[in-house]
Write a structure and sequence with these properties.
By secondary structure, the chain is of the alpha/beta class. The chain is built from 11 helices and 25 strands. Its cofactor is FAD.
Amino acid sequence: MSKNLKQKLVLVGGGHSHAIALRLWGLDPMPDIDLILISDVGQTPYSGMLPGHVAGFYSYAETHIDLNKLAQFAGAELIIDRAINLDLDNHQIVCESGKQITFDYLSLDIGSTPQTITVPGAAQYAIAAKPVPKFLDAWYSLQKTAADRPKQALSIVIVGGGAGGVELALNMQACLSEIIDKPQDRLQIHLIHRGDRLLSGHNDWVSHKLKKIILNKGIKLHLQEEVAAVFPDRVRCKSGLDISCNRVFWVTQAVAPPWIEESSLTCDRQGFILVRDTLQSVSHPEVFAAGDIATMTNYQRPKAGVFAVRQGRPLLHNWQQILQNQPLQVYTPQDKYLALIGTGDGKAIASWSKFGWHSALLWRVKDYIDRQFMNQFEG
C-alpha cells in the first residue's frame, strides 16, 4: 500500500468500461479513496456513434464523453497525459510527460490499435482508425479538401473487411457523396479484405447482405487481397493489384500498445492483458483490465463495444470490494450479442446469432440505444 493513509485507485484510459464505472462511482462514492484518471484526451469517443459522425448524422459533442465533467462528478483527479510504461515492482505508471504516478490498485481501459507495423509504408502513409483523435483529424481534413474542390476526383482505400472497415466505407461514401460534384464519376472507394467474406465473425446472411449493399453503392470490393505495401499515392497488394488513391485508412485486426506487453503483465499473443473472471490480471491481482485491452481467459469474445459496456458495473463492484478487502464478484459475459451496423443510408443491419435483418426501423433502434447510452453522461 502507499504511505498515504488513503488508498489510491488509478485508472488509465477513458474507455467505455471506465466511463460507466466512473459514473456509477459518482452516484455512490467511497470515502477516503484517492481516485485518479489518466487519459491522453479530455473527450473520449463512443465507438457506437463514430460511423454516424463520419456520415454527418451526429456532431462531435454528441459522440464524445466529456472526461473533465465525468471526473468531476466522480470526485476523481483527471490527469491529461499518455501512459507509456508500467513499473509493477514499484506500483507506478510512467507518463509521457515524465510523471510517475503511484497506485495501490490500477485499472486499465485503453482500447486497442490497428496493426500496421508489418506492412511496409503503412505506418507512414496509412491513417489508422485508432487512436480516434488522429483518425478524425485526418477525416476532417479530407472533408475540407473535398468541399474546397468538389469537382476534383477523389480515391480512398480502406483496408479491413470487419464491421469497422465496412461501416467506415459506407459512412464515408454517404458523407462524401453529398460534398463531391457528380460523385458517381469522381468518387472512388475501395475496400480491401484478406478474407473471402466480409465480417467473418458474423453469420452468412449478414456477410452476404453487406457485400450486396457495398457493391450496389458502387464501392469497389477486393476480397482475398492482402496489402503488400503502402505508398503516398497508391496501395499494392501481394497479387499485384495496384490501386491509385489519395488516402488510405487502416481498419484491420487490433493489437495492444507495446508498453503493455513490455510490462510483466501476462498477455495473450496479441499483447492483450489476460484477466480472470473478476477482471483482475492473472499475474497481478492489484491490476484490473476491461474493454478491448483485456482478454478473459475463460471466455473467447470479440473485441466489441457491447462487452466493454457490460463490464462497467462489475468492474466498479470489484474495485469497491478489493478496496474494502472483500471477496470479488465473478463476471460472466453473454455468449450471444446483438450487433447493429449502420449502412450510412438511414438503415441498419441487425446481426444476432444465425439471424440478420436490414431496415430503417433498425437504424432508429440503434440511434435510440446510442443516444440513451450517451445521455447518462449529461447533466
